[in-house]
Every structure is written in C-alpha cells, then in structure tokens.
Amino acid sequence: MEFYILFFAILITLTLISLVYKNFDYTCYIVSTFIAIFFIGGRLNVGADFIEYQHIYNYEEKINFDFLFEFFFKLFRWLGLSYPEASLSFFMLTLLFFHLAIKDNSCKTLSLFFFILYSIVSLTSTIRQGLSLPFYLLAFNYILNLRKYYFYSFIGTLFHVSSFIMLLIYPLKKIKISRPNFLFVILFSFLVGYFDLINVLIWFIDNTITFNNYHANKILTYSTRYNEPMSLISQLYRLGGVLFLFIFNNSLCKREDLNFCKNIYLMTFLFTLIFKDNGVLINRLSFSTNVSLLYIAFNYDYISKKKITKEIILLFFITYFSVNYFKFILTDLRYGIESAYLPYRNFIFDN
C-alpha cells in the first residue's frame, strides 16, 4: 500500500507546485509523466487483467481483440518484447494519445493527475479501454466539428468497442436540461430500476433470441454471467458527481462541449439506476463514459468567474478523483475473488 501512497503523494505535490508556479507546469507535467510510466507502466501482476493478458500474449496464437489493439499486441510480440515490456509500451501509447488530447490545456500537470486518479482501473486492468479514453477527450475537443468528432470516436473503437457509444450519443449535445427536468429523469430512472423492468427484458432476450454476433454475446455475458448488484458505495460516489453537475447545471449548459459531457455523465448515472443488478456491465460502460466528467474538470476555471468558487470546484475535483483512486486500491478485489492491486510489484525492480 505504501507504494500507492508514495505515488499519489509525488503526483499531488507536483500538481500543487504547477498550480502555484504556473511557469513550472510543463516541467512538472514531464516529471509526472515519467513517474507514471515507471509506476503504472512498469507494474508486474498488478491489475485485474494483467495475468490474463500475459497468458494470451505468451501462449495463444489465435486472438480476437479490437483491430488496433490486436495490431500492437502482435507487433510487440513480433518484436520479441516480454509481456511486462509490452504492457509498458501500451501505457506509453496511452500517454502519447493523452498528450495529443490535452496539448492545448493550460494546466497539463493537473489534467494528467486527474486522468490517472479517475482512470486507474482502465490504465491498470482494462487496458484496451485505457487506450481508447484519450480519443474520447479528442472527440470532446472537436464537438463542433462533426467530421473530427466521428473520426476520433471511430479510432477509439479500434482499441475498444465500448467507444462505439460515442458514435451514437452525439445528439445529446443539443439537449439542455433544466434543473426540474434533471431531477425528473433521475426519479424516473430510479422507478424503472426499482420495478426491475430491465432484468425482465434481459431474461426475455436470453431465453428467446440466439446471438451469433461476438459483441452481442459479450453484452449478454456481462448482463447475465456477472449479474452482480451495483455497490451502494459506488452509487453514492457517482451521486456526488451528479450533485456537482446539478449545482452548476446552468453554467455548463452555456458551453456546448461541457453541456454534452454533463449529459453523458448524467446518462451513465441513469443507466446505473436502471441496470441496478448488472454492476459489471455498467462499470464497463462507466469506465469509458466517466471521461466526460474528466473533461469538465479540465475546464473547471470556466464554470465560475468567482475566484473562491473556482478554488472550491478545484478542491472538489481533487478530492473526488482521489477518493476514486484509493477506493479501487483499498478494495483490491475483483468480483471478491482475486487480488488486483496488492502487493505492488514492478518488473524493473524485479530485474
């Protein structure tokens, strides 16, 4: 556990320095990047899927991954990299794409800090999703440019199919929700979940329709095999993000990109209410769509013109994302079966 605390302490120190001394932001960003490469990229047997990917990498010739991930997977194997070295390379690719997404951000160190804390699971476990996340951010950057939005969204799907949702939800950018309607859709979704209508639908699909499509089977697997109720703590945590969006709803509605991200995050929260007994399925979705809250956090200084309010918003996001980081590290269990994060090991140390 001490390694995770040390990693967090170093990153938050560099972030605070970058916020106080603006001229050092890029230097702190570079240092933070190298520390992240060493700590996350160099991890060994850390992350729920590390051992599974390592087995596939070392022993299975026939693989069935998304196109670009499979391309790099086979390329690294052809180059003779060990799996820990390939894992390091995947993380460096993720950071390269992330850098392209935030190249115009004024607070790069803060952006990286938020990205690591809020995406820790995708960066260490569901690494295909981790590779796709920067393309969400790139798409948000070009929300007013339909061609670029769909281009970056499509590239994201080539790393992980969950990005396909970005191709479907573009119309959400036009929807502006008032506070009363904000509350109404939450209440409606709660009632749908309470009366278990979705599980009835899943039961019907499972018993009447035969799927031959790989991705359809995958969805059905996540909604039946991993039929696990949503954690109350996870729901309360997400509710904190929703309350923030509710409070600053009017400000967020004034900018199309922030309004779009607000709607995506709200949509994801509504799904967690509707699919309340399918926690694993929704977590897979939320690992991707939660990036919308990251994008809002990157633009925190726009939300209010008052300095004190800006500082409160910044403190909220630092606290909120830090809780997410430690929440996953401390629970340390995947489906209550196997250790995911402890003990921490690094292949550079081991060598």
TrEMBL record:
The chain crosses the membrane at residues 5-24, 30-51, 86-102, 109-129, 149-170, 182-205, 230-248, 260-275, 281-300, 312-330. This is Wzy. Keywords: Membrane, Transmembrane, Transmembrane helix. The keyword Ligase does not apply.
